[in-house]
Design brief:
mainly beta, 9% helix, NLE domain-containing protein, nucleus
Length: 462
């Protein structure tokens, strides 16, 4: 007797009697039939936290399971396309004079930007794998960069607290720097494309304790979000139009974006909040662009496409937020529903440096100074697996677009690619001469970029 359940826990029809020789292929047929999917969707099936890879009869025997009890089988949709793991370094590009602190692919995956301690932002040509533009304008280290979801702008924030807007097509600086923050910029996040097209607002977080919303058309700070009593370490602009800020005052604050009013404060962490991630982050980052490579002629078209992608990704569940902290723990929140965390996630032995949801929102990965990367269920927050292999702090992680592979960059000078299904190391990528600070997997899945202390940018392909 089996009950098929969605990842959110909703039963799919009534419980069914299934013969012992039914395995994942037959279950796929059943789920596609019950959901009336005209185009067949691939699914993976889980009993407890384990993927079902054999026929039901074999599973029952292996587990000595009680036939009288209804078996709960969770079906999880998989991406229709497959990303191959990167396995070789295709280019090592010198150019930066100091450590590379940030790397980021454009939403369509066709362009790459980096920010460095040498005060420059650089754009790279991915076809020729050579430098395209070197953008000078900052007076100090470039700590963070962010592409607008329509790919038309890149903003960079520096250690002196200034923000500069660049035009990726030409490498030109747009106007003078945006001034207002009194200390360095820790993070930047753009308003999602489905809320505003063309993209014109972004939010910046700073060590001065404030977050500021800027309008790039008027080139002014339109709203100051003040209320944290210490450095704001991270900021995310959510798909429902709320802004989330995490701070060294141990709090996460939720703001609305028309007047900048504080909506609620999320409490729970016992130390600094280092990283925030949204379950919808991947579609927010890529806006209208998906793996098909479709292009758009108007901002309105992009907005509609972005909205359709966001709605499909979110389904009828609320947007989820996860926070990682110096207190070694993480919290999973559903901020629109409750101020109480949905789950507290423990297991890391040192501070949690970076958290990131998979593009489909089913998984959550965390990187820690305890040398490990951990995998969690993105809906319940339950622990799934620990990836061990790095021999030093793990700084940053990034997902492949199909949610099947995870990339990590570490102080040990290597990148590693992990297989989410087998929980094993898929690829070890040595090559950097020193610590790897920044990694990014392109949204089209073709390339990985990494940068760090050795001042070079590396491109990896499959």
């Amino acid at each position: 007797m089996c009950q098929l359940v969605s990842p959110e826990g909703d039963p799919l029809g009534a419980a069914l009697y299934l013969p012992q020789n039914v395995g994942p292929p037959q279950l796929q047929e059943i789920v596609n039939h019950l959901l009336h999917n005209e185009d067949k969707v691939p699914y993976a099936f889980y009993i407890g936290d384990e993927e079902l890879a054999v026929q039901l009869g074999t599973y029952m025997q292996q587990k000595n399971a009680n036939v009288e009890v209804t078996l709960r089988i969770v079906y999880q949709p998989q991406a229709l396309f497959r990303i191959r793991p990167v396995n070789r370094c295709s280019a090592t590009i010198a150019g930066h004079q100091e450590a590379v602190l940030a790397v980021s692919f454009s939403p369509d995956g066709k362009c790459l930007a980096s920010g460095s301690g040498d005060t420059t932002v650089r754009f790279w040509d991915l076809d020729t794998q050579t430098p395209l533009f070197t953008c000078k304008g900052h007076k100090n280290w470039v700590l963070c960069i962010a592409w607008s979801p329509d790919g038309k702008h890149l903003v960079s924030g520096s250690k002196t607290g200034e923000l500069i807007l660049w035009e990726p097509k030409t490498g030109k600086q747009l106007g003078s720097p945006l001034m207002g923050h009194r200390k360095w910029i820790t993070a930047v996040s753009w308003e999602p494309a489905h809320l505003q097209a063309p993209c014109r607002r972004f939010v910046s977080a700073s060590k001065d304790g404030d977050a500021r919303i800027w309008d790039i058309t008027t080139r002014k700070c339109v709203i100051s979000l003040t209320g944290h009593t210490n450095s704001v370490t991270c900021v995310k602009w959510g798909g429902d139009g709320l802004i989330y800020t995490g701070s060294e005052d141990c709090l996460i604050k939720v703001w609305e974006t028309t007047q900048g009013k504080l909506v609620k404060t999320l409490q729970g962490h016992g130390h600094w909040v280092n990283s925030l991630a949204l379950s919808t982050e991947y579609v927010l980052r890529t806006g209208a662009y998906d793996h098909t490579g479709k292009t758009y002629s108007t901002a309105e078209e992009m907005k509609e496409a972005a909205l359709a992608r966001y709605k499909k990704m979110r389904g009828n569940a609320p947007e989820r937020l996860v926070s990682g902290s110096d207190d070694f723990t993480m919290f999973l929140w559903e901020p629109t529903i409750s101020k109480q965390p949905k789950a507290r996630m423990t297991g890391h032995q040192k501070l949690v440096n970076h958290v990131y949801f998979s593009p489909d929102g089913q998984w959550l990965a965390s990187a820690s100074f305890d040398k490990s990367v951990k995998l969690w269920n993105g809906i319940t927050g339950k622990f799934v697996a620990a990836f061990r292999g790095h021999v030093a702090d793990v700084y940053q992680i990034s997902w492949s677009a199909d949610s099947r592979l995870l990339l990590s960059g570490s102080k040990d000078s290597t990148l590693k690619v992990w297989d989410i299904r087998t929980h094993k190391l898929k690829q070890d990528l040595p090559g950097h001469a020193d610590e790897v600070y920044a990694v990014d997997w392109s949204p089209d899945g073709e390339k990985v970029a990494s940068g760090g202390k050795d001042r070079v940018l590396k491109l990896w392909m499959n």
